[in-house]
Amino acid sequence: MGAYVSNEGITPTFDTYRGGKNYSSFVDVTFHSANLLGRVEEWRVEEALTSSDHNGILFRIKGTTLKGIVIERTTRIFNTGKAHWTDFRGKIGQLLEREELRVESVERIMTEKELDRVVEAYTEAIREACEENIPKLGKTKKLTVPWWTQELAEMKKQVKIKKRRIRCAAAIQKIESSRGVPENKRRI
User: Fold this and answer.
1) Which pTM does this prediction carry?
2) How far apart are CA 170 and CA 33, in angstroms?
3) Would the CA dihedral through 29, 33, 38, 41 be positive or negative?
4) I want to staple 36 with a disulfide (CB 3.0 to 4.6 A). Which of 32, 77, 158, 188 is the partner?
């Protein structure tokens, strides 16, 4: 099979107290392949790591350090605490007027293309007003983890997209079903 066991020590991986009796065992086993032989170090059971009946297992893998991708800790760009809000309001008003973005023009939107243009114009106006009137944040510390890859980042992005679609679909279905409730009540 080519699997090797890393477990060491005398601390059980499962430990619980039920019905006045203590139950413990070494049921949780850490396996590794031949290419990690001699590289698994400091394998140990950590009892305080979880609130589960199963204890945590910690170990290090000796070898080359993997270089992960950089993960931004925040998406914030501007320091809103130091914003010049009066100037910001004036600038955003000027930009929205220049682009002829008014409530009436938004209410007249008929196509997806028009909607995209308006959203893009609003976004650009906000960005420009921010650039001129809100100082940017300083450099934030960036987190890198060796196991995080571009593939994982893309998968995470896809999960967020799908979760948002599900959440929005659920809201739409809720609205549609609530419209049908009075009709169903009348039938009864």
Assistant:
1) 0.38
2) 45
3) negative
4) 32
